[in-house]
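Q: Hi! First time doing this. I have a protein sequence and I read that you can turn it into a structure. Is that right? Here it is:
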Amino acid sequence: MKLSIPTPLPSRKTMVLAIFALAIGLGSAFAAAWLSRDVSIFSLAPAPGKPPDILASQRLDLHRTFFTIWVALLLVTPALCLFPFRRRSELAARYWLAFWTVALVAFCVHFYWAVVVIFGSDWKRIMGTPRVSAPVLDTVFAIWWCADVAIAWLVRSEATWVRVERTLVHVLAFVLFFMGAAREGELLASRFLGWTMAGLVAAALAAGLARLRKSRGNINIASQ
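A: Yes, that's right. Below is the predicted 3D structure, encoded as structure tokens:
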């Protein structure tokens, strides 16, 4: 049976767990960036053969930018996996919203470091560098994600239009994170995270479909 409106809010325990994961993730990202500040992990050039668009003095901030998006990817993965189950399980709904929210916080930290710290809010540079493949779409996605989280916490409606926009923003989140990590990732670790996320989400969708078929089968048997 599907959950009735409104969307359940995370319990205190659930939210504490999600915030703890966020704190550990961001703390580890900034620590890793500091420890690797003198190591050429990520290229200062946007692509092989291209001139550098990042100064050597910005290497620490470059590492912070990459490591924080990894944290966002790790946190959004459970939210994407739980999304298909949120209307059938109150527990899934609570954990989905908790991790959907903290993943947004991590993404906003990454977005700030990329736009403000690395590129100095210079949109001409951002639009002109091949390092950022879809700056307009990324910005629209960030605003949309913020709006969806606000709706989930404040309006908490599961009206048809909310379900449609929420499904679309989750699909967009999956596509952007997957393309950014698995397809465009500079390091093997990034591609591994992207493909792992894709595998887990695919497994969750398969489990959801199997559960739906089983419930429909039980209904058909009961009606005979």
